[in-house]
User: Which sequence fits this backbone?
């Protein structure tokens, strides 16, 4: 797939499902919207789900390098005249930036385990995780995609299965990951988001002291509700009903303000 220097939101592959108030779901690294949000399709009974594939995923044209700041304007445009914004992992970092670009049309913001680790710098466990991540990316040019993906998934606590040989979507996703801008470089405008009047929810998976610390800091600085949904490590949307029930309840209450 040929990379483009610039993209517009309309260039992305986007699936829309369901009826009701719009919910924009932004996936993270390695796998696209269909894999990330497959357990959330049941929510289409109550909500209009907007499921874009980030640049380079599915049929969406690639950027020279995945970058949360470069992708945020695309997702902000997809909010349209108003939508709830939901992001997971790298997609949660993008969601933070996108919501800050258009706070007047965001109905609510839900993020799970954003990779913006540096917001909790100074915590020894977080600093160690960042150092390990930086080392992994320094070695990217010497590693095969399978080695890189296994190391990355082990570090974040993903419960997605990694086969012994990468093909298709997983191979493409691993290659995108290897050149993606590391999410710990992010410094999202959390206080600015905290001043916005839409409701916010930060979710962690209860599996990692690092992500618990990061989510605690993000929630505090953003004046957000905080939840823990365990059972699938970092892969929180894969909990299915548990995640869906919490998200549906939060969206429903948030929608009453519109």
Assistant:
């Amino acid at each position: 797939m040929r990379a483009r220097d610039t993209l517009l939101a309309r260039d992305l592959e986007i699936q829309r499902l369901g009826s009701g108030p719009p919910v924009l779901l932004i996936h993270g690294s390695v796998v696209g919207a269909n894999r990330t949000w497959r357990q959330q399709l049941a929510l289409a009974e109550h909500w209009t789900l907007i499921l874009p594939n980030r640049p380079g995923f599915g049929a969406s044209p690639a950027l020279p390098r995945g970058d949360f700041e470069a992708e945020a304007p695309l997702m902000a445009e997809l909010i349209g005249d108003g939508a709830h914004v939901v992001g997971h992992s790298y997609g949660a970092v993008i969601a933070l930036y996108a919501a800050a670009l258009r706070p007047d049309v965001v109905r609510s913001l839900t993020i799970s385990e954003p990779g913006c680790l540096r917001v909790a710098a100074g915590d020894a466990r977080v600093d160690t995780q960042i150092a390990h991540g930086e080392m992994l990316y320094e070695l990217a040019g010497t590693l095969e995609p399978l080695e890189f993906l296994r190391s990355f998934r082990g570090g974040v606590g993903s419960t997605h299965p990694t086969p012994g040989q990468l093909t298709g979507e997983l191979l493409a996703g691993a290659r995108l990951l290897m050149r993606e801008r590391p999410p710990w470089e992010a410094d999202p405008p959390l206080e600015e988001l905290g001043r916005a009047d839409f409701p916010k929810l930060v979710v962690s998976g209860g599996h990692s002291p690092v992500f618990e610390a990061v989510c605690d800091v993000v929630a505090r600085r953003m004046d957000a509700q905080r939840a823990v949904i365990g059972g699938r490590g970092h892969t929180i949307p894969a909990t299915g009903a548990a995640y869906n029930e919490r998200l549906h309840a939060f969206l429903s209450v948030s929608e009453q303000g519109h």
About this structure: The chain has one domain: 9-123+180-255. The mean pLDDT is 95.
